[in-house]
Amino acid sequence: MKRWATFDCYGTLVDWRAGIRAQLARIFPDADVDALLGRYYEIEPDVQRDGALPYRVVLAQTLARVAVESGRSVPPGDEDALAASLPDWPVFPEVREALLEIRERGWRLGILSNTDRDLIDQSVAVLAVPFDLVVVASEIGAYKPAHRHWEVFAARTGATPDRHVHVAQSLFHDVAATNELGIRSVWINRLEETPGPVPTRSQSDLAGLADVLDELVPL
Predict the structure, then answer these.
(1) What residue ranges define each of the domains in the chain, with the CATH number in brackets?
(2) pTM, 2 dp
């Protein structure tokens, strides 16, 4: 049977925080950018609760709320700045090599992402690694941590939890949900956080991930 490794994209493969932070610093050069980024991180899941909003709208609405909270406004022409900048968000340095090694060992690769199809397609092109399936929020009407991404993935692939490992940076969006669904997880703890929901495994980045996946689901 096929072995599947699915990944969150932004924060796990692509440096979401660096991408957002760069735009906040450009748009609000006089602000405490780290404080704005912290509030952005807290506000975005609240905006996503609607489930039906395209991710580019989530990005714009969250940016606007962060600005208002800090006594600012988004300059005209920058309302869509986050979505427009997304193709330039950097890929973490170890990611491409790690993904290629995982594919070489026979794993199928998928992405389960809280984003839009056009945005994820641009990021996948930058990653330059083939993915066998990509499930995005805008096409299924739900944002993680709702279970819909994993349900759609299972329906489209026939993958069962014993042949599937999900890899992600977010405890809130991903690890908690996989625990509820009985799917093993590898938490990429890039921010040196303390786990709330406890993942199956954890590591600081994707280096050596192929070995961990092979241990969890032997060939």
Answers:
(1) 4-15+89-216 (3.40.50.1000), 16-86 (1.10.150)
(2) 0.94
